[in-house]
Amino acid sequence: MAERRIQAEQPKEVKVHTETLPRPLERYDDFLGQFTAMGQLPPPILENIIAKEQAVTSPRFLRFTCTQCAIDESTQKSTGLPLAAVWHPLADICPGEDTIPILNKIPFRCNRCLAFVSPHFRFVEGGRKCICNICGLVQDTPDEYFNDRNNKPELWAGTYEFIAPGDYSNRPPMAPLFFFCIDISSNSISLGLPQQILTSIKGVLDYISFPEKCSIGVMTFDTSMQFYKIGSTGEVSEILITDVDDPFIPESVAGLTYNVAEQREQLDGLLDRLLAWDFTQPPKVNLSAAAIADGMKNYLLKGRGGRVLIFTSQLGTVGKGKLTNRVDPKLFNTDKEKTMYAPLESYVTLAQECTSEDICIDIFLCSGQYADAPSLAALCSQTGGDLHYYPNFNVGFDGERMYYQIFRTLTRTQGFQAVMRARCSNGIAIDQYIGKFKRKGPVEMELACIDSDKTIVIMLKHDSKLQEDIDLHVQCAMLYTSQYGQRLIRIFNGVIKSTKTIPNIFKGGDTDAIANVIARQSAYSIYEEAIGTVREKWHASMITMLTMHRMTVGDGEMNMILVLRA
Q: CA–CA separation, 346 vs 446, rounded Å?
């Protein structure tokens, strides 16, 4: 009898249709390291690329959640995808990428919407007329643009900047200034915090960009404020301020800060003397961060501005803005739970006043106990600063991290006295901004400081039904003072397209930008809704997005469409 061979039936291999995903996996298999920004879907944010602009701003500076949006608001909402842009105005430029061109003259602007000229202005009638890509106004072309276009970067660069006219600012450009405020209460001393901070400052000085422009000052605080001044002989004198409710600082900011290049020997001497300082019998409590910021705003940095770095080890219970424990277990899982996560109104007001004085607040919170982080965060976010949190601070474990965060704060690209806004072409409009800033009027944002780690989310909305396959333009402008001390205006130009088909919307989705926007929306909702409600809405948005993707993409081959299991 012939041998019967039974062959097991091999299961059919089913693959997901990656070409239907928001970012097809095959797209970068042969990627050569260069991406030309022309309005198409950008590479992943962590991709090692060299971005080249071609009339559109590099995705390093401006990314859209959808490179193709629906022609009407109802269709866009049905996809579950937010319509927004993530604006990163001072993003670091990688080696090999073109620097941002600086114009030698002020570019002309639309007479109606005040948009700056861009590569997307249309020139008609032989170049004698131009059409604004934002509002559509037909206007005369200035002579210099009619006769010489090749030497005008604003006509081919997606991003450019120019020196701002003098009437664009009511204050002189601000040079970089960093003032360190160090907690020396008994808790801080026991943690070794002052020594770690002073050692970190000394280690960073050699790496500061433009040291000839930068000044640094140091103070300490417990239940009072202590300022230090080093004399020509190397002796350090201490200025003690005990009236913390209305502090009068008898010394000017010039006398308490030191230029990193020109006064390096004095600065090193001050840091060395403070490292050896004997902080005997320190109090158990300390000043609130608000008391420090208020003193800086009203006296030392008034009219000057600067970046204030406050290091605290516990809840500030002394001075203006003293804090108390606001946690009430009875409020958890109720509608009033959100009140525990909302900042105190006095802190929000103080932060806005600091921004008006060009003062940015950074807080390094080194506490394992309740410290009212929402109120402290308001001081930072409203001024353009950062809140760094070290729960149960330990020098051996957290010291290196603190050093690198101080290093990053002092050495990264940053600007000061910033005013920002965005404009949209007809058919879409600005819904809201999300980020670290103070609102200035209905359409502008104001920041005491902006740096290369900060992004702003620009939420967009439809204000009319769109035609299919048209270009929609977003222009962002930022007035700021650079680290060189120049007052500049930087212009960014982005483009997306309209479409009728939902699959095109999904295929044009930038997953990095989508995740950024949804996370920020959820985080900011904590101030208005209970955490449980925020979580449910987040789950609902994910379900809507994945359901619509499954229903509209894949030509009915349901087993080849990406589905995420709970």
A: 19
